Model the fold of this input.
Amino acid sequence: MKHLLDSSFSGTLKVPGDKSITHRALMFGALAKGTTHIHLPLHSEDTRRTMECMRALGAEIEENAEEWVVTSKGHSSLHAPDETLYTGNSGTTTRLITGLIAGLGLRAEIEGDASIAKRPMDRIQRPLAEMGADIALKDEKYPPITIKPAALSPITYTMPIASAQVKSAILLASLFTDGDTVIHEPSPSRNHTEIMLRQFGADIASENGTITLAGGNELNASDVTVPGDISSAAFPIVLAVLKPGSSITIDNVSLNETRSGILDVLEMMGADVTVEQTSQEGEALGRIHAAYTPELKGFEISGDIIPRLIDEIPILALLAAYSNEACTVRGAHELRFKETDRIRAVIDELSRFGIRFTEYDDGFTVHPGQVDVMENTPVKGYNDHRIIMMLIVFSIISNTPLEIDDISAIDISYPGFMEDLEALRKDA
Ligand SMILES: O=C(O)C1=C[C@@H](OP(=O)(O)O)[C@@H](O)[C@H](O)C1
Ligand SMILES: C=C(OP(=O)(O)O)C(=O)O
Done:
């Protein structure tokens, strides 16, 4: 990694496929009758967990480098798994398949790794139980999750938090119920489930924060082309903005409105970032140019923008540390329930280098000031892919090697991250 430190970065990059969309394509492919081709899926640890779970339920999945092919005889052909389903580090897999399995009326036990064992599942258990599901949790809150067969009915549910995982678990459970399920969202969360369900033939409508799904339609297989993941693109974008002499282009990346909050923040900061939209059908798609910007303004964000950039907050905290003005994130209490408590992790690691924070229960302020980086300072990645990639970008922009305890969790969402940075290295 040392040679990345003294370099600037240029050229064009295609980041790996969108993680949220790949998970959903595998699940809807398994539920739908026929053959679903998933073009440019994300090959990563998290999406592999969803793939293995769908196989355990009876879907056939063929893997090629650029395409996965899911073949299923439809939702009624899926069966209870023979063994405990293992969801690894993936909150999306854990929560969405709980809704899917409850909706199919199957028996299953679901567990994940040490991080998943600490992530709250009562947020999905509550609405699913209201629908009639029989779901038991450890200490009424955590995995392992035990699902017993039960018949479900539609519900009207007002979500207490903006969460695409909760919304999607309910939608998956409601697919084969008799009647309309209605969900009210407090703020718009990522809408990939709604877009893809419509594509697969479900009767679903979404308007002003209310999603209505009429249950009972068989899903039909449909092909999915997965756009690049803007949550992965965020790391090279911030690297280019902070590293003198850099100018990069990310091609073929998702510009879905419910995911593009980071672009709004970059604009507020006056970063040299431009966006070209190339397609608006279904999932919006385009190209992002990002270049070194010597002076960055501050920002204050809260409310509706937060779910639109929730996974980008660790890398935004780094960007904020190099701004000339204070930067504040509020309304992001959800960060405390991710792979690790991302508010604590960001503050604990970056404050080792003189970066000054005020911590709130639901966010932080980063104060402007000098960043002092000492060579080979030990830092912790908490086995959290987004914290680890933020620390790698920090090391590169500060031209200082850091001792990160373990970087293997990068493979959760962005295998090939280091190779992609290497390919953008100017004198490579
Ligand atoms: O539905 C999804 O694919 C995701 C939803 C978000 O979680 P929440 O639903 O908990 O906000 C996000 O943080 C996660 O990385 C992926
Ligand atoms: C929070 C994340 O994923 P998940 O909830 O699926 O573990 C993430 O990818 O940042």
About this structure: Residues 2-16+228-424 form a domain with the UDP-n-acetylglucosamine1-carboxyvinyl-transferase; Chain fold (CATH 3.65.10.10). Residues 91-104 form the longest helix (14 residues). Residues 235 and 254 are 15 Å apart (CA to CA). The chain has 13 helices and 22 strands.
